[in-house]
């Protein structure tokens, strides 16, 4: 996950350099055998510092450390305005107000991601990942562009999708408009 984020932010050539061992022209490790893993850790720390500068502490906790805001506390939970919800980290469109509904769970809920066509999510800006962090299997939802943790998706939503995207308000920015 960190490697993908570094690749997006620093470019593929630098990431390949960071992943490969440093070698001199004689084939031995350069710099006295310094492990390039420390370079990768430094780059990851730099990226984390950049996110900490851009985001509030709560936004950083949720989007970069896979946290969760308290239920019924989010600014967008009861928002009924038409518009689009964007990633707070990279401003990528993620969800439309047209697919938002009140699930009663305490977090903004959506029946599908922005750009979904039927069951096809290939044109959306979200990715699904298995999440076993609480001892049970859930499906995490992350931003495809910046890898921000957004929330989780469950198979107990309304028809026709049957999906409930349970998304943290602090991972979103809302822009009023048509919602399409």
Topology:
Layout: H1 2-10, H2 12-19, H3 37-54, H4 57-65, E1 83-87, E2 93-96, E3 100-101, E4 109-110, E5 126-131, E6 138-143, E7 149-154, E8 164-167, E9 172-176
Antiparallel strand pairs: 1-2, 1-9, 3-4, 4-8, 5-6, 6-7, 7-8
Helix pairs in contact: 1-2
Describe this structure in words.
Helix 1 packs across helix 2. Strand 5 (126-131) and strand 6 (138-143) form a beta hairpin. By secondary structure, the protein is α+β, with helices and mostly antiparallel strands. Residues 1-34 have low confidence and may be disordered. 24% of the residues lie in helices and 22% in strands. It is globular and about 50 Å long.
Classification by helices and strands: alpha+beta
Helix content range of the residues, please?
Answer: 10-25%
Strand order of the largest sheet: 3-4-8-7-6-5
Distance N to C terminus: 30 Å
Radius of gyration: 19 Å
Q: Biggest sheet, open or closed, and with what strands and sense? A: 6 strands, antiparallel
Proportion of residues in extended strands = 15-25%
Mean pLDDT: 83
Low-confidence stretches: 1-34
Q: What's the tally of helices?
A: 4
Shape: globular
The count of DSSP E runs of length 2 or more, i.e. the number of strands, is 9
Element-level helix/strand string: HHHHEEEEEEEEE
């Amino acid at each position: 996950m960190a490697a993908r984020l570094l690749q997006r932010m620093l470019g593929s050539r630098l990431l390949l350099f960071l992943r490969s061992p440093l070698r001199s022209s004689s084939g031995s490790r350069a710099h006295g055998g310094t492990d390039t893993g420390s370079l990768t850790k430094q780059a990851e720390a730099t990226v984390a510092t950049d996110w900490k500068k851009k985001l509030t502490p709560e936004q950083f906790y949720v989007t970069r450390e896979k946290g969760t805001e308290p239920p019924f506390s989010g600014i967008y939970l009861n928002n009924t305005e038409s518009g689009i919800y964007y990633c707070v980290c990279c401003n990528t469109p993620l969800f439309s107000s047209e697919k938002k509904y009140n699930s009663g769970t305490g977090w903004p809920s959506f029946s599908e991601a922005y750009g979904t066509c039927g069951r096809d999510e290939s044109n959306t800006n979200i990715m699904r990942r298995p999440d076993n962090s609480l001892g049970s299997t859930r499906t995490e939802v992350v931003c495809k562009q910046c890898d921000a943790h957004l929330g989780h998706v469950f198979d107990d939503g309304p028809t026709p999708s049957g999906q409930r995207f349970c998304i943290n308000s602090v991972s979103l920015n809302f822009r009023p408009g048509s919602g399409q």
